[in-house]
Amino acid sequence: MTLIFSKQGAELYNVNGDPRAFHILASPYATPDKKAVLDFFTLLAVCHTVMPEFDPIKNKLKYQASSPDELALVEGALKMGFEFLERTASAVKIRLPTGELQAWEIFSEFPFDSTRKRMSLIVKRYGTEQYYIMTKGADSIMFPRLTIDSQTSAIVQDHLDKFAIEGLRTLVVAQKPLDANQVRDLLYCIENVKASNAPDKEDQLNALYDIYEKELALVGCTAIEDKLQEGVPETIATLMEAGIRIWVLTGDKQVFYMRDYVIIL
Amino acid sequence: MKNTKYVYGIAVYTGHNTKIMKNAKNPPSKVSGVLHRMNQILTTVFIFQALVNFTFAAASVGWTGKNASIHTYLHLNADVTFGNYIVQYLTFLVAYSHLIPISLYVALELLKLMQGTLMKWDQDMYYAPMDKYVNVKASDLVEEIGQVEMIFSDKTGTLTANEMEFKKCSINLKVYGENFNPDVNIIILR
User: What ranges do the domains of chain B cover?
Assistant: First the structure.
C-alpha cells in the first residue's frame, strides 16, 4: 500500500488520536466508508464563512472566523489534511489530502441566524456540472430536514446523545444534489426578493431557504469541545461542597461535561 | 422606506422613562446582614430607653412633689410642672445613655478590618501566576461572602476559554475520535 498523502506526517490525519479515519482515507479501495469520510471533510472545508489570512512572518495560513465553532470545524478538517486555502467572493479553494486542488463555486449562501440555527451553501465543484446544497446546523433543526430511515436515525441520534453527555457541542452536516434548473430558479427568486421593497423580505427569504433545505442526505455529525478554563471543575466542586448552589446559563445541550464531572442542568 | 409618502413616528420611553434616566439613580448602598440586624436591635433598645426615661421621669416628678418638703436638705424642685418633667426626662436620658452601645459599632468595624486583613493574607486565595493575593477593597461585606448560597454564571467565555476544538465525528454510522468515556461522575444540580 502506498501512502498517497503528500506533505504532512500520517499522525496529522488522526481525529484526536483515532487513526481509523486516516486508514480509511489511505485505503486504495473505493469503499463506502472512504467516500463518506471524503465527502464529510470536503463539506467541512467548503461549507463555512471562515476567512483565510496569510501570515507572511510565519509563512502559513491563519483563519479568521466570527464563530469559534466554525473555526474549530475548519481546523478539524485541516488536521485530516483537507486544507481550506483561499476564498474569493464566489469561490473557495481547498486541497485534499491527496494533494489535489479543488475549487468550489459558491452561488448562494443562506446565512446562519439564531432562529434558523443552520447555514447552507449552494455550490458546484469547478469543472463538474453537479450542483449541491451543503447545510450544517443544530441537530434539533436538521433532523426533520433529513431523508433518513428510522434505523439510521436511531444510531445517529445515539451518537449525538453520547457526544452531548460528554459535553460536546454537536452539529449535523448534510447535503443534497441539485440540478441546474433548481439553482437557476432559486437564484432568480432570491434576487427578486432582495430587490423588492416587501416589508417581510426576511420572512420571504427564510421561506425560500426552507424549500431548499429539505430532504437532505446526512453526511455526518461533528462534536466540538468548548474548552474549560483552568481550574473550573475544581472550583465548582469546591463551591458545591460548600453548599453553594450554582446556576449556569447556556444555550448548549442541557448536559455539561467538565472533565470528571457531568453537570446536568 | 424609500417608496413611502409619509412616516409615522412615535416616541416611547422618553424623559424620565429613558434607560439613562432610570439608571441615573444612585445604586442602593449595600448593608451587611449583621449590620442590618444590629440596627434593628438598637432601634428596639432606643424605644425601650425612651419608655424607661418616660416612666422614671414621671415617677420622679411625682415623688419629689410629695416628698421634697420632708427632705429639705436635698434642695429638690417640688414643682409639679411640665418644665420640671422635661428636666427630669433629660436627667434620666443622660443617666441611661450607656444603654446604647456606641462602642459596639467601633468594635464591629475593627473586627471587619481584621477579617479583611486575614483574607488578604489567605494563602488559599493566592494566585501564583500573577503573584496576587485577594484584594479587599471594602470591608463592609466581608462576613457576607461566607454566606453565599447561589452563584449565577454564564458559560461560554466565563467557565470556558471560548476555544473550540473539533473532537469527534460520526460519519456513515461510525464514530471517529477518542472513545466514549462512560466513567464520569454525574452531578445533578437541582
Answer: 33-99, 110-146, 153-190
- From A69, A239, A264, residue closest to B164, measured CB to CB: A69
CB A228 within 8 A of CB A44: no
Whole-model pTM?
0.66
Phi, psi of B177 (to 5 degrees): 125, -175
pLDDT per position as a tens digit, A165-175: 777 788 999 99
Q: What is the reported pLDDT for B105?
A: 86
CB A93 within 8 A of CB A102: yes
Rounded to the nearest angstrom, the gap between the alpha carbon of residue B41 and the centroid of all alpha carbons in its chain is 15
Q: How many CB atoms lie within 10 A of CB A33?
A: 19
Contacts within 8 Å (CB) and 24+ apart, A228-231 = A228/A258, A228/A259, A228/B159, A228/B160, A228/B161, A229/B159, A229/B160, A229/B161
Per-residue pLDDT, B190: 32
Tell me whether A250 touches chain B (CB under 8 Å): yes
Choosing from B79, B122, B140, B154, the catalytic residue is B154
Residue B124 annotated in active site: no
CA within 13 Å, CB half, A253: 24
State residue B149's pLDDT score. Answer: 82
Q: How many whole angstroms separate alpha carbon B3 and alpha carbon A197?
A: 8
**Residue B84: how many CB atoms within 10 A of its CB?**
18
Amino acid at B65: G
pLDDT tens string B110-160: 998 998 999 899 898 888 888 889 888 888 778 887 778 888 877 777 777
Residue type for position B38: M
